[in-house]
Structure formats: C-alpha cells, structure tokens
Amino acid sequence: MTSPYELPGEAIEGFDTLVELALDLSGTWKHATDRIWRELDTTLWNLTHNPWAVLQAVSHEKLARTLADPEFRNRLDQLVRLGREQHVGPSWFEQNHPGAPFTAVAYFSMEFMVSEALPIYSGGLGNVAGDHLKAASDLGVPMIGIGLLYQQGYFRQLIDSDGNQHALYPYNDPGQLPITPLRTANGEWLRLQIVLPGYSVWLRAWQARIGRVTLYLLDSNDIANYPAHRGITSELYGGDAELRLKQEMVLGIGGWRLLEALDLHPQVCHLNEGHAALIVLERARSYMQRTGTDFKTALTITRAGNLFTTHTAVAAGFDRFSPALIAQYLQHYAEEKLKISLADLLALGRSRPEDDDEPFNMAWLACRGSGFINGVSQLHARVSRHIFQPLFPRWPTPELPIAHVTNGVHMPSWDSAPADALWTRACGKERWLGCSEPLAMSIRHLDDATLWQFRTEANRELVEQLRERLAHQLATAGATPEAIESARQVFEPRIMILGFARRFATYKRPNLLLHDPQRLKALLTHPERPMQLVLAGKAHPADRTGQALIQQWVRFIREENVGHRVVFLADYNMQLTEQLVQGVDVWLNTPRRPWEACGTSGMKVLVNGGLNLSELDGWWAEAYAPEVGWALGDGREHADDPGYDAQEAEALYHLLEHEVLPAFYTRNEEGIPVGWVERMRESMARLTPLYSTNRSLPEYVERYYIPLAEAWRDRTADDGARGRRIVNRRRQLDRYWSEVAFESVETESDGHQHRFRACVRLGELTPEALLVELYADGVSGRAAICQPMIQNVDFSRSGEAIYETRITSYRPVTDFTVRLRPAPIDLISILEDPRILWQGG
Ligand SMILES: *Cc1c(COP(=O)(O)O)cnc(C)c1O
After folding, report:
1. CA geometry: angle at 217 spanning 211 and 222, to 5°?
2. Are residue 756 and residue 628 in the same domain, yes or no?
C-alpha cells in the first residue's frame, strides 16, 4: 500500500486491516462496514461516506484506543476475512462458465457511480456502470473498469430561498479519495502520453478497488502538462464540444494504452455509451502495430471483441462533432497511426460518407467498430432500431441487429440495513451471488405483519433523515434559527411518502404533479388520507428550462404553505438516493414515453418494499402488472403534446386519489393495509430478482461476452486468417456489387402454395457469395416471413445464377418479395455488412 499522505496510525497494530477495508469499495455495500467507520468518526462518516477520509482525519489516540478494543478488532478482522473468503470460493462465473473464452472484459465509461466517496458520476449512466462492476465482483466475472478521474466531477447543487439553482464545483483532492496512484514495478508513477494537436498530454493513472474488480481512472492534471490540458479531466459533462472530444480521446485512446501499459489483454471491450467509441480505433491501431496489418483488416478483426451499449432514446442524445474539429484533433492520428485518410476516418462516423457537412457521430463510430449493439430495455431497443436506421438503408427496421439487456441494479448497494436483515432471514446471505430463482418463493412466505412493520420503520427513518438534511440545507443557505428549527418538524411518520428524484430534464416532466396546484394541495392536506412528497434533482447548469422547474416547485411549497408536507432536497446524489429509495412508500416516475431509455431509480425501491407508480416507459413498460404497482399512460407515444400531458396529469391525480392513497390507508383490525402489503410482497418477490444485476450481468456474459470472445478468438487465430478472408470477400463485393441485379423473378401460385424463381446477375461474384431470400413484411402483429432460396445447380450460365424456393402460406403471392445480400459467412451480423438489394428496388 502506498499512500501520498502520512496516515496517523501507520504504526498501530491492526491499522493495515483498516487501510485494506477503507480502500476496498466493496465495503460500501456491506452494512457492517458502515458501523466501523461510524464508530471512528460519526460526523465525518455521515457527511462523506468516505472511509479513506475518516482514516486520514481520525487522531492517533482515537485509533489506538479503538483498535485496542477486542470487540472492535474482532469485528474488523472478521469483516476483512469474510471479504477475502468471498473472493476465494468458486464464484457464479467459475461454476457456470469454467471454460469461458475470456479472461478479461474491459468496461469503458465516461462516469461510474460506485460510492459517494468517489464523485465521478452524474446519474443513470454512471449508475449502470458502477452497479455492473460491483456485480462483476460479486459474481466473479473478470472485469476491468476504465474511466476518468474528474477533479471536480459533476456540479454540486445549492438552491437559494427563491428556488434558484447555483452550481458549485468543489475540488476533489485525489489524496482524500479512496483510490491509489498507479505505480510501475519500480515504484514510478505510471504516466501515459496521448498526442493532441501540437502537444503531448501526460495522463496520470489511479486505481480504485471494488472487491475483485479494479477500476482504473485517468486524469490529465499533471504539472508537466500545458495549463489548458491540465483541465481536460476537471469536469464531467462541462465545457464545450472541443473539451468533450479531448475527454473522449483520453478515455478511448488513453484507456486502451493504459491497458497495454499494464500488460492487460482483454478479449472483450464493452463501450458504455458512444463516449468511449474511440477505443475501437485505438484497439485496431494496436493490433496493426503488433501484426503489421492494415487498418481495415485490423478493425474487422478487433471489432469482433467489442460490444456497444446505447443508452439514449433520441438521436440528438449522441455526441456529434464537426468535421473541422475531428480534423483538428484526429487527422494526424488517422494519417500517421491508422494510415488512413481523414475522409476514411470521417466516413466511420457518418451515415452518408459522401456528405462533407455531416458531423461525426460517436454512436455511428461505435456501431461500425462493434460486433454487437444493445439497448437497455425492450422498448428502448425498438426505439434504437429506428434511430440507427440511417446506417442500414433499405433494411426493415425490425431486422436491425439491436437487441436489449434491460438494466438491473446492484441490490446490496441500495438496500437498507433492515431490508438486508429481512432478505437475509428469508433468503440467506448468498442471495445476490448467483441463481436467484428461489428468492421469489421465500419472499412470498413473509407474513403481513412482518412486512408492514418493516415498511413503517422505513417510513419513520426517512422522516428523521430528511428533517436532518433539510435543517442542514437551510443552515448552509443562511436561514434563520427559527426556520432551521422548523425544518426539524416537517413531515410526520406514518403518512404516505411519495418520492420523486431524478435529473430535472424536461422529458422527465418533473412538474407534472404541479399541473393543478390546488388539486395537489388537496392531496397533501387531505384530512384522512394525506400525502407527503419529497423531491430532489439537479438541472444541468446550461439547462434554464430545467432550472425553472425546480424554482416552480420551491415557489409552490412557499406560496401554498405546504412546507410541512413537501420538501425539495438539494444536491441529489447517491447518498440521498439511498435514503430516499429505502424510505419512500411510492416512487414516482413521469417521463414522456419513449424517452426514458430504461430508468433505474425505480428498481432501487424494490428491495426496500417501496412501490412504483410510473409511466409505461423504459423498464416499467415490461415490468408493470397490476399486482406489483401502478401505471400511467396508455403504452403509446404522444410526442410532447401539451394536451396529452394535461390528460396524464389528470390521470395521475385520479390514481393517487382513488387507488394509491385509499390502498395505503385502508387497514384491517390490526392496522395493516392488506392490499398494500400484498402488492409490496409481490413487487419484492417478482421484480427484485429480475431487475437486479444478478440477472443483467449473466445476460451480458452469456449473450454477448462469450460469443464476442469466441468471435474475436476465431478472427485472431492463424495470424488473423479469418479476418483477412472477410476483408478480401468484402473487397470483391465492393468491386462487383454495383453489377449485381435481379434479371427476373418468376412466381407461380396454386392457392396457398407459392413458387419463386429468381435469376440474378452476379458480375464476377460466385453464387455462394450471395444469400437470396424470400421475404414478406409482418402483418397484424406477426413476425416477418423470411426464408433462404436455394441455388439451382443445374443451371449454368456464366455470370448468372438461379435461386428457387416454395412456400405454403395463407398470404397472397403478391405479399412476397425477393431480396439478396452478401452471404453472412463468418460475419457476426448484418452490422458488419448492411448491403441489401430488393427485387425491383
Ligand atoms: C439511480 C440514480 C439515477 C438514475 O435514476 P433514473 O430513474 O434512471 O433517472 C440518477 N441519479 C442518481 C443520484 C441515482 O442514484
């Protein structure tokens, strides 16, 4: 262990164990670990949840005294021992995939939400990345995280008494973060270089330990750098397009170089969103250098090991850069390193390569450099197939090769200590370490009284926490002692708490509940069935509209005098999320369908017995059933029609008034709301295992990582023989594709038996180079019909071939079309060669 700072307790017996515990972020999801830090410094721990900072701040005397306490020592040693043991026993991965074709997956992401103590995240994207790494540690999937260390992270939020948001950028002293500098074998700080126009930039590297997984972080704040470059990694999602491009160069190009410097050779690279797309270029470059091949071959071979996960539901969500900016930053790289022209590079990020004005789209690059693409919910994959359509001209949208893995959350990170205890009693300690099928049954055995008691406690605990937090918030904003005191009186235990916390982006409609302020006020102050509402969320500093929505809430609370029932908590972050998802009775989500690609916050309440009330969008569109929660919307898209928003607001009030609140307050003779508890139980049993990383990570392993690693292995075998073969075949196709045509298509039909015979002009291609198919669009909800046609080998005329098939179908012969495309020999999917030719088209 090397620390940049002297720690107070170096010499004390047992101190090493504390250091080990503090620097392993897997401690963040173990409730027993929290207790250790709380005992060392309650205030600092509660404020920061940063064990490393606690360890630095605590006095020598306190450390010596605490470590000398046998009970404390015992607990500490046991925690560390248990942690180590968990990592030596056979994991889910070792048991289920003993011969897996990969030894490492490198996971690239612009943000990671792992712990409050490591503020390098903004929201959902980082959440998915962080929870994925944590699950990899739990399930023993060999994974390496690659990200950036931001000196200031995402902005911190202050809200003044008039509801104005102020963005703050406190500096994160890396020495106080639970990470360590990455050193080479001889003790030198590992530094890497990437080239920007006219300058080299030095990158420093850090590591964060998350159980079995290491997260490597790069930063440019090296004193050897030109001042403008020191700030490249200062803010997450700050600055302009130029800064973003530089950050993405650090992540993609620098990230791959870091792996090489560490002698790590992942077979699979997982791109979490298009920000990381430059990795595909650098991975190909490194293959070129090692094997002496050209770029095209190198990309064909290495793309087989890349997976691209897209997270946006609108085309405008992708990073796009002007051709001039790409030229400025990457022309030299393209020409000198990849040995391709700038035009060739630009073509990789365009849907129409010949269009000089089309910007360079990082998602298009990721797509052209990956073996598979996936969306993050079923609905999102459908939406993505439309967004990616420009890359697949003339392909029917449903056939586009974009499937989905619905996100899951890492339950141990989001459960409360009492929820952990409840689940442990019902399902055992190992419940999130592998197969989760038996969980549902065990949860269904929990009785009403136990569940309701658990929920009532959670509600009470949240009331206390939010009083504390609000008082603190007001004090920081300079409120009067009276105001601060009255903050300690807001809310009442046992009144239903509705929670809404997320980015204040317009599409999430954070003000939907404010549509009719009086109706909302009536809900809040109802004499028998009142409701309490807790809100939180940041609006991006450039998003004025989002900030106005925050202000609208703050003003409503003040003007309607409902501060005892509604609070807006500032600075939404991971720690606040934990408190909210553990305590709310109902979690509300009101996105405009289909703009919430998945959404994860609602999944975090499941393990804690909270219920979801959400628009049928993202994950809820597939998870919802009347037995597990409430749905808003008709499951269709209505764009941003204000009339429809109003209608949905009405529906939301109606649902609260007539279903949600009555269910909460209708009690049996023991004071238990039986219907509510039934929903709770079913939501916990049915949804928690499904929407956990315990389901999503194995899906990634089995559907993507293993096939990709196999494809990559095949393509790199024999010096890349298969890769070269694919490139040669495609060169042939490039040359002769324009000559390929349907000479004729003859059809014959006797009622339901149709016969098709297509004569195809081949140019110089062989008949085997093409796949000819009979196709009919899907109708009335049925899948499309598609069947290969067989070459008639008796026919021989140079430059032509006949393909035939017959089909029995109730559909008229005129529904069918013949089409042809390159034979998919050796290809992973049409992602690699989307050419297609239609009869008559
Ligand atoms: C879970 C979480 C998110 C993502 O929530 P969504 O419902 O997907 O918007 C964002 N920010 C924080 C701090 C979170 O904990």
Report:
1. 140
2. no
